[in-house]
Specification:
Helix content is 28%, strand content 29%. By secondary structure, the protein is an alpha/beta fold. Strand 9 and strand 10 form a beta hairpin. The protein is globular, with a radius of gyration of 16 Å. 28% of the residues are buried.
Length: 189
């Protein structure tokens, strides 16, 4: 079993992961479908550690009212240990395995990879944090769920110049999303 670090996210056709109000309403207002739920369940079953930026964490916290309903965190993410990058001290979801970290991504990634064992590392987002991982050569795979919407402006998917082409390894679809899987080339040494 080879562990990979995967940046797995939903994205608009025009390359944004959140709108200009940092909102994901355009994504979560959609009714969930059994197929999409199953896709996420099978993804999360392979995840042994996950990382996200403070903006992403705080959006989930507020939008899902996690401080009042902390059990929902487990519903979404199970027992997967999480690292949240922030320069501040946001409230922790009670009962969730969350570590607040700041600064260099390499050291944190090493700790995550260690905890994940033979499972994968999930870079949840946002794009600016994912770009720090990518720049450090720490993203092996990018998996996009392209939503049938354009946002015009917002938080960018991955503001990073890839050193070469990503390798397209899979294309899939459900009713109205397209799923694109790419391998990221190893950085030049
Ligand atoms: N479509 C999707 O599936 C999806 C997935 C993920 C995220 N999103 C959305 O995308 C938006 C996030 O955009 P984003 O890229 O601006 O935000 P982000 O990566 O979620 O968070 C940015 C924040 O993370 C902290 N941060 C980043 N790097 C850090 C480092 N090295 N050390 C310490 N703290 C660090 C900083 O917080 P401080 O304020 O503490 O300095 C920074 O303001 C959110 O609205 C989120 O909801 C969407």
């Amino acid at each position: 079993v080879v562990q990979t670090t995967q940046y797995y996210t939903a994205v608009s056709i025009d390359g944004f992961v959140a709108d200009s109000d940092n909102s994901l309403d355009w994504l979560v207002k959609r009714p969930s479908t059994p197929e999409r739920d199953e896709r996420f369940q099978s993804f999360i079953a392979g995840v042994g550690a996950m990382a996200m930026g403070a903006a992403t964490y705080e959006w989930v916290l507020d939008n899902e009212h996690l401080l009042d309903r902390p059990d929902k965190w487990q519903e979404f993410y199970g027992d997967v240990p999480s690292w949240v990058f922030t320069h501040r001290e946001p409230p922790a979801v009670p009962g969730a395995d969350i570590t607040f970290v700041r600064g260099g991504v390499a050291e944190v990634h090493a700790a995550m990879a260690d905890r994940a064992g033979d499972k994968n590392v999930w870079m949840v987002g946002g794009g600016r944090l994912a770009a720090q991982f990518a720049a450090a050569g720490l993203i092996d795979r990018v998996i996009l769920g392209v939503a049938p919407v354009t946002l015009g402006a917002g938080a960018p998917l991955l503001p990073w110049r890839s050193p070469g082409d990503l390798r397209l390894v899979d294309v899939d679809r459900d009713e109205d999303f397209v799923y694109l899987t790419y391998d990221v080339p190893a950085p030049a040494r």
